[in-house]
Amino acid sequence: MSVGWDDDLLATVVRDANLDKSEEVLQLLRELLDLEQQVSHLARPRNILIKINDLLRETLEADE
After folding, report:
1. For residue 18, what are the CA distances in angstroms to 3, 33, 40, 52, 55?
2. Predicted pLDDT at 37
3. Is residue 2 part of a domain?
4. Angle at Cα 18 formed by Cα 32 and Cα 62, nearest 5°?
């Protein structure tokens, strides 16, 4: 599978942000970017948008 983003640059940005959970944030960003690529060619990306919403909700709830 090819990715449409520079993973090294993404990792550098997350590291430079000096976040407490940088690995979790990096993984979340990778998943969101992957989902975004999946919907970029679809006319009606409803199911993937629901997955994005669920992923963000789970991540935010885990931080509470």
Report:
1. 24, 21, 30, 24, 22
2. 83
3. no
4. 50
Residue 1 within a domain: no
The 3-class secondary structure across the chain, one letter per residue, is CCCCCCHHHHHHHHHHCCCCCHHHHHHHHHHHHHHHHHHCCCCCCHHHHHHHHHHHHHHHHHCC
Question: Encoding tokens for residue 55?
Answer: 């992923």
pTM: 0.65
27 found inside a domain: yes
Output 61 or 4, whichever has higher pLDDT: 61
* Residue 5 near residue 33 (C-beta atoms within 8 A): yes
